[in-house]
Design goal:
By secondary structure, this protein is mostly helical. About 70% of the residues lie in helices and about 0% in strands. The protein contains four helices and no strands. The chain has helices at about 5, 25-65, 70-85, 90-100. The longest helix is centred in the middle third of the chain and has 41 residues, at about 25-65.
Amino acid sequence: MSTSSDTARPTTTPAAPDTGAHTPEAAGVIQDARRRIDDLDGRIIGLVQERMAVSAVIQRERIASGGRRVNLSREMEVLAHYRDQLGRPGTALAMTLLELCRGRV
């Protein structure tokens, strides 16, 4: 008598469970690429923090000179730039950056 387990395909064990890879070579490539991404993420976060600081200077000077905290035409330029470079998701990214950089004065 045959059971369903007799005809089941053998399962493969991932080479590195946290990568989802099934060969040591692929796991190594994935782990190296993830380290690069982690490094890039750290640099991106640092750049965002620098952008926030520069934006605070601009806002402080604009307000001190009698202007408004936010310059909507400049924000539209930023949105268009990100959209042109990254497509529709770039607009969402730019909106997040603008939100992070507003009102820190």
